[in-house]
Amino acid sequence: xxxxxxxxxxxxxxxxxxxxxASEEGRLVYECDMHTFYKGAPDVVALPKSTAEVLAIVRLxxxxxxxxxxxxxxxxLIGGAMAPHGGVMIxxxxxxxxxxxxxxxxxATVQPGxxxxxxxxxxxxxxxxxAPDPSSQMVSSIGGNVSxxxxxxxxxxxxxxxxxxxxxxxVTGAGEVVRLGGKVADHAGYDLTGVAVGSEGTFGxxxxxxxxxxxxxxxxxxxxxxxxxxxxxxxxxxxxxxxGIIPAALEMLDELMIQAINAGTGAAYPKDAGAVLLIELxxxxxxxxxxxxxxxxxxxxxxxxxxxxxxxxxxxxxxxKGRKEAAGAVGRLAPTYLLQDAVVxxxxxxxxxxxxxxxxxxxxxxxxxxxHAGDGNLHPLILYDDRNPEELERAKAANExxxxxxxxxxxxxxxxxxxxxxxxxxxxxxxxxxxxxxMARLRGxxxxxxxxxxxKLLPSHPACGEGFRPAxxxxxxxxxx
Amino acid sequence: xxxxxxxxxGALAAIVGQEAVVDDRAACASAAVDGLAPRxxxxxxxxxxxxxxxxxxxDAELAVVPRGGGHALELGHPPSRLDLVLDLRRLxxxxxxxxxxxxxxxxxxxxxxxxxxxxGARRQLLxxxxxxxxxxxxxxxxATNASGPLRARYGTLRDLLLGVRFVQADGVVTWGGAKxxxxxxxxDVPKLMVGALxxxxxxxxxxxxxxxxxxxxxxxxxxxxxxxxxxxxxxxxVDSTVQxxxxxxxxxxxxxxxxxxxxxxxxxVSIATAEEAVRAQGQMVSRFAREAGATLLPLDxxxxxxxxxxxxxxxxxxxxxxxxxxxxxETAAExxxxxxxxxxxxxxxxxxxxxxxxxxxxxxxxxxxxALVERLRALVAPVGGSVxxxxxxxxxxxxVDPWGPLEPDAFALxxxxxxxxxxxxxxxxxxxxxxx
Lengths: 481, 436
Ligand SMILES: Cc1cc2nc3c(=O)[nH]c(=O)nc-3n(C[C@H](O)[C@H](O)[C@H](O)COP(=O)(O)OP(=O)(O)OC[C@H]3O[C@@H](n4cnc5c(N)ncnc54)[C@H](O)[C@@H]3O)c2cc1C
Description:
Helix content of chain A is 34%, strand content 19%. The longest helix of chain A is centred in the C-terminal third of the chain and has 20 residues. Chain A is globular and about 70 Å long. By secondary structure, chain A is an alpha+beta fold. Chain A folds into 5 domains: 87 residues, Uridine Diphospho-n-acetylenolpyruvylglucosamine Reductase, domain 2 (2-Layer Sandwich), CATH 3.30.43.10; 118 residues, Uridine Diphospho-n-acetylenolpyruvylglucosamine Reductase, domain 3; 110 residues, Alpha-Beta Plaits (2-Layer Sandwich); 97 residues, Alpha-Beta Plaits (2-Layer Sandwich), CATH 3.30.70.2740; 32 residues, no CATH class. Among the domains of chain B are: 119 residues, Uridine Diphospho-n-acetylenolpyruvylglucosamine Reductase, domain 3, CATH 3.30.465; 93 residues, Alpha-Beta Plaits, CATH 3.30.70; 83 residues, CATH 3.30.70.600. In chain B, the strands form 4 sheets. In chain B, strands 15-12-14-13-17-18-16-19 form an 8-stranded antiparallel beta sheet. A 5-stranded antiparallel beta sheet of chain B has the order 5-6-10-8-9. The chains are: A alpha+beta, B alpha+beta. Chains A and B meet through β9, α7, α8, α10 and α16 of A and α1, α3, β9, α8 and β11 of B. The structure holds flavin-adenine dinucleotide.
């Protein structure tokens, strides 16, 4: 949808000439997020420096009924920060200030474009950190983390982004600035902060975030245990949890992944292992020591081939190195992959891994696995060669089969990346008409004209349509009205 | 009785059975909410029955107050009207318990006591401990977002509710969230339902995250010469690696009510983990107490039972005062003064490391309550704090807004939600913020 010249002029008046990217080449940079499969360049990219500028842009777009796509760092994996219908993209990476750090009240207030890790860097010398740690934390923005409700390896113990957001400033799709929640923990009224987290830019733009900071743990202990098979490793995971231990992180890698990592990064995980568990415990020193012993013992009891405990920070970094570079390492196995993040109940891990192998065989694709085993959050990488269109089709079919299998086991289609454009068609696997309809109407409260990130998160399902009402229960015959 | 009353009663009976519809005057009078007696008390036995009762209520524009344990009926504005009390206590099943996944799905009318018995056998717990929690229902706890000392470590129901099945005002059964511990598919609808007082939907079934029961626990009490000294100790604790599961501030009256001694201020700390780690951290806490001029005394585990009882005295007024962690001492002191000006002594307790205080005191005149609540609201307003009346006689809640002022723009969204999902004002009409 090409924009009228009048609109560009008005945007220039709001932002100044260097606040817009309108050239063909310039806009192409913004045509996709890290799920490069989905492409759609915006008609113009606006780069505001303040809430007031964001507000002015939203009001303008609302008047003109032009779609708006918010964008943080563009590291999303769902086709989120891209513009399938064109329109105005609002990039928040010029709003990167830390507005306040208040350690005595365990909180910080930041602008949305601030990179996740920068916040931790600003407070770590004083012994504090920001808990949500997506593997992209060196590049992804806090606004993006909030909007996708990002997780990370350590959210097994610490929870996902939603558990750490105290308040937001939001410019809604209706063109209003609202302040939700805040530094004080308790507020009267509906928890609008809670539902706005994870709304993927469909409610509005997050322009300020107040987060909870945590004190750094006294001690950390990292353990690497290798097993003959995914099944035995999964049993060890269950046994650790059954022993009442919730590690900070509990990550699993399968055989194919181990091979790729060993070939690629020199991390040197045990070669003949069918699965590797990376277990991290943190907390008070005495607790960590007691639990580390227990965990190591459990792994041995469950038939671990090898158990290594990192003795210092350097060894810890080495154990994590392979895990952190996993996605890059599979590049050695195939040029491209589809990545999913569906979840199954933790106790169904052995079963879903068997199912995955069957799916891989059926669709003649390779699937490498690296995942958050502690909470059953899978990350299967379905490998394919993008030069071969038929291979892509098989990869896509395997991907669909996999999502169905996870749902059939009582799971969910996405544990941390979000829905975006990628899984919008799968949402109805998990939700019925009434549920989808509720969500669509909820969105309408914040964004009545549906100009915010249209086409994402909510499917173009009849139940999401204007005026749709789900079937109501039948009442007794001959009632009274 | 209106012209319609008889046929509606018949329709209700057709849905839930004659024996589950009560309409006799005495029973209805005893189920009154803030002096307003319903015309019917309906006791559905399934989610489907809840759904059909609400569909009927919607069509007939009846006002419905859902109730669980009946513990928090003195919360919020008095209802603007009331036709039907929906008693959910027959929905009391544990639907699905998956100990290996640390998740459980329960019907909303199940009590905490029943849930604890079930999951406690596997050394697991739902870490939620507001006063009187045993007899409260999970639905009621979620609708009011009730919490107690354990929130210092585990958060509130906002952090524990994974999925929810609820019935909208027009009877449509709706599901939000997921049954696994991690999900971001679609909006986080459970967050919207927690603390909404059932005004957007009647909670029917809850999927909850459980935690392993810690192997060992110890509790200590540090008594201070004044609230300022307690504040210094709290600050030291916040800026440390100690990971307590409860940190509660108590003023003199609260300490006395718990039978735990006599001092102007005290902080009760508990730590729960491996035994050696409890001891090591206990030594750290003891050092912090010494530095703040106090001695740390060990307490019996039964302290927390006494504490729960002492903080929810029958018939008292209860206020929740939300402030900054750095201001808990000051806010507690000012709350003491404000209540004393009205006559009684307030027992003040609360999650010190979260800034969530609670003040309870014997009922006084509505006008006096208004004066003290306004004084406290003015005190915490500059830091974005809140003063919510959690419990008080109806006359008090008619005289003082129990929720306090909200940001107008945020409230406009809240009203938008209520208009969208309960345009006829069927669910708990008038009770929630701004009279929603
Ligand atoms: C190597 C790699 C590793 C990753 N690891 C993880 C991981 O461990 N866990 C995890 O959860 N994710 C992970 N991700 C995915 C991604 O990094 C996260 O989803 C992250 O939160 C996105 O942040 P961003 O700033 O890049 O947002 P973007 O990609 O720019 O945007 C994401 C979505 O949020 C919206 N949005 C962005 N900013 C705002 C705002 N201020 N207001 C309103 N809406 C906004 C966008 O419209 C879009 O829908 C990974 C990605 C990569 C490339």
